[in-house]
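Appendix B, Record 12. Input sequence as logged:
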Amino acid sequence: MAFAFSDADVERIASVLGVTPKRDGSLVRFELHDAPSGRRLTLEIQMALALPPELSSTQPANLVSVYAPSSFLQLQGCTGFLASKELGEVIFVAKHGGRTNGLVVEREAGCSLYANVDDRLFSTDFTRLPPEMIMSSVALSMTESLFDDLG
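Logged structural output:
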């Protein structure tokens, strides 16, 4: 069964990010502001998109978007997430065909996007990777346990 965000997921994300979610039907918005850095961003989760039948059978019907002063990021078909109070961040993941895309949202209104990461990198010795690829591999490898029961 395709991943779908639940109300408990929304509360977990809100708890990690330290903000109160605002709801409008199936849209949930989190507005983050970090006073020391002056950063702001808005995270939106569309929990139930009306996809055409040819897409709804193969893609989760959700959408994760980040609006920041100088960027707009979007993760379609989120297949899971990892929310860590210790790290102060939520990692949204979309896996498909041996590739992983990850959108990391930090409590301090920071955001990173890692796109089209080959899943084989997660089992590679990180010390052998080019330095530019280590960060994405380490960040997204933390989400591998989300999919252990999927085979």
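The chain has a mean pLDDT of 91.
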